[in-house]
Amino acid sequence: MDVLGTIKTRRSINFFEIGKDLADDKIRELLETANFSPSSFNLQPWRVVVVKDPERKKVLRKCAFDQPKAEEASAVLIMIADVGGVENNIERVLDSWQQLGYIKPELRETYTGMAANLYGAEDSLSRKIFAVKNTALYAMNIMLAAKGLGLETHPMDGFDEECIKREFNIPDDKIIPMLIAVGWLKSGITLLPRAFRRNIEEFVTFNRY
Prior knowledge:
alpha+beta; NADH Oxidase; 4 strands
């Protein structure tokens, strides 16, 4: 399927084929493909917890307000925005840039300072926005890559973040923007036509608001 076809046919499904295993190597292929996602300063401030074990999915379902798809999907991805992504990844980013010829060695300190000034302290609002928006870019790539691999997904916003952090040992300073249920559409289910989409004239202007 081509890129435009993937975008147009991706749907957020609610009914997954129960008990169908999603192999670890398929999940790895999915996440590696999506990992070509862009990110600010190439800092890639995301982490993912893959939940496949049936008992762990039951726990996750409780944290997700008892939504069946949290348990019925073959896997659920806990998307984690890492506010420490700047400090954790900046040196490797700069190493890569230097080795590939993007920057000269004497500019490393300049770029380190630029990143620090741009994204703020770890506990700042700007840093949280940085982490969440880039994790969302990765998440969207996951959903498109999943469609390309013959899988279906559903991004989930309804959950108790503190419950998930507690049950899955996620540090308090991390942010969970969403869960992504991954699997196959349940046999016998026919999707209804795609729901309302705003006309772009409602929200697009050129050159000024």
